[in-house]
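anyone seen this seq b4? input:
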Amino acid sequence: MIAPSWIAALASWIGALPFASTVLADTAPAAHGFVFFDDLSYRHKPDLLGQGMLPIAGADAPPASGESTAAADAGRLEQQLAPLRTASGMLVLSAGAPPAVGASKALVDAGIIRYRHLAQSVHALAPGLRFGYRGILPLTVMRPTDTEYLQSDVTVLRPENRRLETIAAEVDVIFPVLYTSTADERAWEVLAKATLTQARLYGKPVYVCISPAMVDSAGRPTGQMIAGPRWRRELDVIRAYADGVVLSGGANREWDDSAAWWVQTQSVMDTLR
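predicted toks r here
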């Protein structure tokens, strides 16, 4: 859910930025630069806009249910997006898990219809926002015991991801999720490169959702922070394949200006200025 205490301020803040809609409209890192979005929730976090990070709004789509019709979804979504109706900027929408790889055509088609309806509602309710789904596109598969992303997986995934092109057509950007859940750095890197290669199939800007905290297999933070050198490597890999990152995490943690991940993040941002 959007936190009303800060989202209204964010809406007016983003809308007042003279450069926001221009910066967020950029699509190619080579021509326009790599973008950092601030979705961090640390306590006592400083204002990061002056340090080169752009604000981003986040929301949760209504959960799918027996009454999950286009009209019902639009009604629930309208309540969340009301503070952003006149805002400009970027929105990342969480909408549950994507259709499973290998799912039946009927199940995939039902998911596609729902995601398309939600996207159309977002554009109607907050026309000044550019938005995408968190972790819905593209589909990825990684065998947990392998450190190589096998060509057979890519062969299977390409047609699966092509089936989701009608969802991609309704969004402005792609937000793949590449949280770190394995100590195997090579496995993460191989998966990241394959995921971002697939994300490029849709011809939209790609902004990767990452966190400086390790997560478990269910995506929950473990409390362990990623070491500075590894975090820098992850940022470098993403920079080579994507247009930017959305940094998230930090709930119930104090901001630390000297944290290794933040030092490395600032170093990368410095090279982009």
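Residues 1-32 have pLDDT under 50 and may be disordered. Strands lie at 35-40, 53-55, 57-60, 89-94, 129-133, 207-210, 213-215, 221-225, 244-249. kinda curious what u guys think
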